[in-house]
Specification:
Blueprint (H helix, E strand, L loop, with lengths): L1 E3 L5 E3 L2 H10 L4 H12 L6 E2 H15 L1 H7 L1 H6 L6 H12 L4 E9 L4 E10 L2 E8 L7 E2 L2 H13 L3 E4 L2 E12 L2 E2 L1 H9 L3 E3 L9 H8 L12 H9 L5 H6 L3 H4 L4 H15 L1
Helix pairs in contact: 1-2, 3-4, 4-13, 7-8
GO molecular function, one term: endonuclease activity
Protein name: ATP cone domain-containing protein
Pfam families: ATP-cone, Mrr_cat
Length: 274
């Protein structure tokens, strides 16, 4: 049977790939196989991968909100758009979990022009800059023009010293981050040019998905117990991650959730982080 990908390309349906994605969300083997069997009974030639994903999410949510939230992570990252500013804040939180000091949206004057840097990092006395490329569509990829452009910005900044993190420092490293994927050429050019690349699935076994799961730093947009409007309200209040929500649970009173709803949201949040 053929499946239509987000890009419109027709590919062969891969049962094992669907099972693996469900298992990675925390579903056990029996649970994953039951869900796949249900989905396959409803499938037809040319069905979209989006419909398969939505149906899997619904069935998983009927069993476990936490598994559904993990399964929904990539879509949850899209919920940090459309502009991408909240994605930048989220990535700063991911870096803080790895013991980096961070600054978001910093304007610095380079050798030639001024640049607004998405995120600055400090660790072991090394300052790095992160440039984020946010895509609001699931199938979009960052091509080779992205690292070429960002390399020119890094080159304009790296030879000057700036007042950063309470000292005069150079920016000595540049990291490009995207919520989706890089093309092969983009990765090849970036690595050849000394840039670090981070995407949904790159580097292998150390991409955004793995970092989020490893440090349990989930965006609030993955919660199944909140509506989209409620998530948007929390983002505006600078509540970016589930850990933020647990630490400052009064945010839920601010957006006027009932006592029972607050209880359910915090239950899901605590299960995710534990």
């Amino acid at each position: 049977m053929k499946v239509t990908k987000y890009s419109g390309e027709l590919v062969h349906y891969d049962e094992q790939k669907l099972i693996n994605s469900l298992r990675k969300s925390g579903a056990d083997k029996a649970m994953a196989e039951t869900i796949v069997k249900e989905i396959e009974s409803e499938m037809y030639e040319g069905i979209s991968s989006k419909k398969i994903y939505k149906r899997a999410y619904q069935l998983l949510k009927n069993i476990s909100n936490v598994h559904a939230a993990r399964y929904n992570l990539r879509t949850a990252l899209l919920g940090l758009g459309p502009a991408g500013f909240f994605f930048e804040k989220f990535m700063a939180k991911v870096m803080q979990e790895q013991n980096y000091k961070t600054k978001v949206s910093v304007t610095l004057t380079g050798k030639c022009i001024s640049h607004e840097i998405d995120i600055l990092l400090l660790k072991n006395d090394v300052v790095s800059m992160i440039e984020c490329k946010f895509h609001s569509g699931q199938d979009a990829k960052s091509d080779v023009k992205v690292p070429m452009y960002i390399l020119s910005r890094f080159n304009d900044l790296k030879d000057k010293k700036y007042d950063l993190f309470s000292a005069k420092r150079n920016i000595s490293k540049c990291i490009i981050v995207t919520n989706n994927k890089f093309t092969t050429d983009a990765i090849q050019f970036g690595e050849c040019s000394g840039l670090s690349m981070l995407s949904w699935d790159y580097p292998q076994k150390n991409g955004i998905k793995e970092l989020v799961d490893r440090y349990r730093v989930y965006p609030i947009t993955c919660l199944t117990t909140l509506t989209k409007a409620e998530k948007d309200q929390l983002l505006i209040l600078d509540c970016i991650t589930i850990k933020d929500l647990i630490l400052y649970s009064d945010y839920l009173k601010t957006i006027e959730l009932s006592h029972n709803r607050i209880k359910n949201v915090l239950k899901e949040a605590n299960q995710l982080t534990n």
